[in-house]
Amino acid sequence: TGCPRIMDTAELERELQRVRxxxxxxxTRRTHAAAEAVDAHAERMRDQSVELEVLGEQxxxxxxxxxxxxxxLLQEQQSALSLKEVYTSxxxxxxxLQTHMAGLQEVVHAQEQDCSRKESxxxxxxxxxAERTAALxxxxxxxxxxxxxxxxxxxxxxxxxxxxxxxxDPLRPFKVAVRIMPDNTYKVARCDPPVPGLLALxxxxxxxxxxxxFIKSLRxxxxxxxxxxxxx
Length: 232
Known about the structure:
This protein is an alpha+beta fold.
């Protein structure tokens, strides 16, 4: 009774069949598990492939955006440089214009001062001429009846007509036209009849400014001329 039991062939076959069945079941489960693992891995690989594709597209889009921004930045930098050059040019031109304007203002100021001075001188000269004309009128008024003198005021000259010069023809008119020049000197525009010493008389008039003496001297010259013509 102490010896182990020896299995018969049929029982051994059944045992082997049981073990085989267990092994087949285990193998089947392992095969299904492996297939599921492979499918899951393939699914993950597909998902990762899609993700990689999406990431690649995003990367390409980002690279395009970066390139666009870089080009835009470069253009803006170039535009900024151009604007800076324009600004510098405008500043230079502004400085030049300011200098030119300052020069023009100085010129205009000098011209205004010169015009004011000339206007003042013109007013003063006109005043002097008016005063001299008034003085001439006063002198002529004094000598009008005494020397049979008549005077007429023209726009730019004083016309004198003298009679009672020639004894043979007392009514014969002796005429002279005198102008007051811009430099406040006298000039004889016409003298009828002319006398030889007229230039000397005018020079003496401008030196002495004695118009009454000029009238008397001119009358004397006319009397000599008239006496000579009467004798001939």
